[in-house]
């Protein structure tokens, strides 16, 4: 169903997880569209929860509260880190205290170029966008935080990133798991971080053979995921085979 901001969402009255393009009014709890596009609703197998999100063709990422994002640290300002979510867009802020159990004496010391997986915690247009590396439900990491430097970052389309993260019937990651063990962080801003095996492993400043092999698998996995966004699902197996043919 195609909708625009201001339309009523035709969804069931049940527990709802909101995805990109959908906003929940904190006062009224009404769920409304925040972007133009096609409404997608996915109900879990137990019929106890539904995921609602809007699929649009926008290439520009606009941060929304609760979005999961992959960002690159570009500097500091006051008690916060400046983080880039997309090229040619304004940086967002990551407070130095926005980590589990962080204190002024005990907090992560991030450097320029390091990568973080975070959640958009504030998206008020009139002030700076803020992100945090804390799961609000538990107060713990919940998968957020600094990402291993031996991983690899690449970019994909926003709709494709949304499918990888939210669509339970998506086959891309499941098929990749048949080829290698991997860790992945998918950002709704179109950035994906992935690492196969143990990543880059050094001994006496020399890259080990195992580390080099894991990195080759990491590059193959990234190639596979990038290519899959442009082919029909009937060709996914062929893309997987082609991406790993020399390994």
What attributes characterize this protein structure?
alpha+beta; 17% helix; five-stranded mixed barrel; 3 domains; four-stranded mixed sheet; 247 residues; OB fold (Dihydrolipoamide Acetyltransferase, E2P); Ribosomal Protein S8, Chain: A, domain 1
Task: Give an overview of the whole structure.
With 247 residues, the chain is an alpha+beta fold. The chain has 3 domains: 2-55, RNA polymerase II/Efflux pump adaptor protein, barrel-sandwich hybrid domain (OB fold (Dihydrolipoamide Acetyltransferase, E2P), Beta Barrel), CATH 2.40.50.100; 68-146, OB fold (Dihydrolipoamide Acetyltransferase, E2P) (Beta Barrel), CATH 2.40.50.140; 152-243, 2-Layer Sandwich (Ribosomal Protein S8, Chain: A, domain 1), CATH 3.30.1370. Helix content is 17%, strand content 30%. It has helices at residues 158-166, 172-176, 209-228, 236-243, and strands at residues 2-3, 16-18, 22-24, 31-33, 37-43, 50-55, 68-77, 80-84, 92-95, 115-122, 130-132, 145-146, 152-155, 182-186, 191-196, 202-203, 206-207. A 5-stranded mixed β-barrel has the order 7-8-9-11-10. It starts with a strand and ends with a helix. The model has no long low-confidence stretch (mean pLDDT 87). Residues 16-60 form the Exosome complex exonuclease Rrp40 N-terminal domain. InterPro entries: Exosome_RNA_bind1/RRP40/RRP4 (IPR026699), KH_dom_type_1 (IPR004088), KH_dom_type_1_sf (IPR036612), NA-bd_OB-fold (IPR012340), RRP40_KH-I (IPR049469), Rrp40_N_euk (IPR041054).
């Amino acid at each position: 169903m195609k909708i625009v901001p201001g339309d009523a969402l035709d969804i069931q009255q049940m527990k709802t997880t909101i995805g990109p393009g959908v906003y929940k009014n904190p006062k009224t709890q009404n769920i409304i569209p925040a972007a133009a596009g096609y409404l997608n609703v996915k109900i879990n197998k137990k019929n106890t929860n539904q995921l609602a999100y809007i699929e649009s063709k926008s290439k520009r990422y606009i941060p929304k509260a609760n979005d999961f994002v992959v960002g690159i640290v570009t500097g500091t300002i006051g008690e916060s880190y400046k983080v880039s979510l997309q090229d040619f867009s304004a940086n967002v802020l990551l407070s130095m205290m926005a980590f589990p159990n962080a204190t002024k004496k005990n907090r992560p010391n991030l450097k320029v170029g390091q990568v973080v997986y975070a959640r958009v915690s504030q998206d008020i247009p009139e002030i700076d966008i803020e992100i945090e590396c804390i799961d609000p439900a538990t107060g713990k990491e919940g998968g957020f935080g600094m990402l291993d430097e031996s991983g690899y970052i690449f970019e994909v389309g926003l709709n494709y990133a949304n499918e990888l993260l939210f669509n339970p019937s998506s086959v891309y990651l499941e098929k990749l798991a048949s080829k290698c063990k991997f860790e992945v962080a998918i950002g709704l801003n179109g950035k994906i971080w992935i690492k196969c095996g143990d990543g880059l492993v050094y001994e006496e400043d020399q890259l080990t053979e195992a580390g080099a092999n894991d990195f080759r698998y990491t590059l193959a996995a990234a190639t596979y995921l990038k290519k899959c966004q442009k082919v029909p699902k009937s060709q996914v197996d062929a893309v997987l085979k082609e991406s790993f043919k020399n390994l």
